[in-house]
Amino acid sequence: MIDLHYWTTPNGHKITMFLEETGLAYKLVPVNLVKNEQFEPAFLEIAPNNKMPAIVDHNPVDCGKPISIFESGAILQYPAEKTGQLLPKDLRGRVEVNQWLFWQVAGLGPMPGQLIFFLRNAEKHPFGIERYTKETERLFGVLNKRLEGREWLAGDAYSIADIATYAWAAPYNLFGLSLDTYPALERWLEAVASRPATERAYAIAKEMNPQAPQPVRRAEREIARAAS
Predict the structure, then answer these.
(1) pLDDT tens for residues 175-228?
(2) What are phi and psi of 110, to 5 degrees?
(3) What is the pLDDT of residues 8-41, one digit of tens each?
(4) Omega into 60 within 30° of 0, i.e. cis?
(5) 12: nearest Cα among 226, 207, 204, 191
(6) Are 173 and 197 in contact (CB under 8 A)?
(7) Sheet holding 2-6, edge to edge
(8) From CA 80, how far away is CA 160, in angstroms rounded?
């Protein structure tokens, strides 16, 4: 059994997507960011950076005491390596998946995260908005180019790289972006969104927090295009 300390953010969605995809048994432990529960001493014991998500694996392969893990990229890697799911077994495939996983956690996450901060700040800072808009657009361009002629982001199969990246690419509308200039990305977003595990993961988020943004699906985009 895995305890998932979770709230309805992109980084939180990554882990529910993985767990729903693989069918691993887990228990949700809400960490309500609105109530600052990420600063509770019990949570800091497993996530010293006071960020969620975090997990506790009560059944590690060494049969020792429970293992706690923070940082979403490390969390994804751990059960993927433990179970052999959503991570290639061959060296070159693993390298390809891991480099795109780290691309996401280093860029397509921090950059749009900063953009959201400046967009929502009551005191508008044009320099910050411009800087992080351009960097987010650049990263979306990198992602679109990578997906041209490819079904999945890394390797020949759906992987933790797709899961990690989807969680931050899906809310493109919150970043003020349009998918009109990212056709390969748009196709991939719909492919990931239509997976039953993805639908279940976002349903969990909506049930826990009705205000949590949901992915904008192709049908909704087509309606918006027709109305514009």
Answers:
(1) 999 999 999 999 999 999 999 999 999 999 999 999 998 998 878 877 777 776
(2) -60, -40
(3) 999 999 999 999 999 999 999 999 999 999 999 9
(4) no
(5) 204
(6) no
(7) 26-30, 2-6, 54-57, 67-70
(8) 8
Q: What angle do CA 200, 185, 154 make, to 5 degrees?
A: 80
Residue for token digits 């990212």? 182
**What is the token pair recorded at 211?**
């205000």
pTM (two decimals): 0.94
**H or E element, residue 113:** helix 110-120
- Asked if 166 and 17 touch (Cβ cutoff 8 Å), the reply is yes
Mapped onto helix, strand or coil, the DSSP state of residue 217 is coil
Whether 99 and 210 map to the same domain: the answer is: yes
CB 218 within 8 A of CB 191: no
How many domains, in total, are found in the chain? 2
Spatial separation of the C-alpha atoms in residues 97 and 119, rounded to whole Å: 32
Residue 107 and residue 77 share a domain: no
Structural tokens at position 40: 């509770």
For residue 50, pLDDT over 80 is answered with yes
In the listed set 50, 67, 83, which residue is the last one of a domain according to the structure? 83
Last residue of a domain, one of 63, 83, 103: 83
Residue 35: which domain range? 2-83
- 62-100 as b/e: b if 16+ CB within 10 A: eeeeebebbebbebbbbbbebeeebbbeeeebbebbbeb
Same structural domain for residues 57 and 116? no
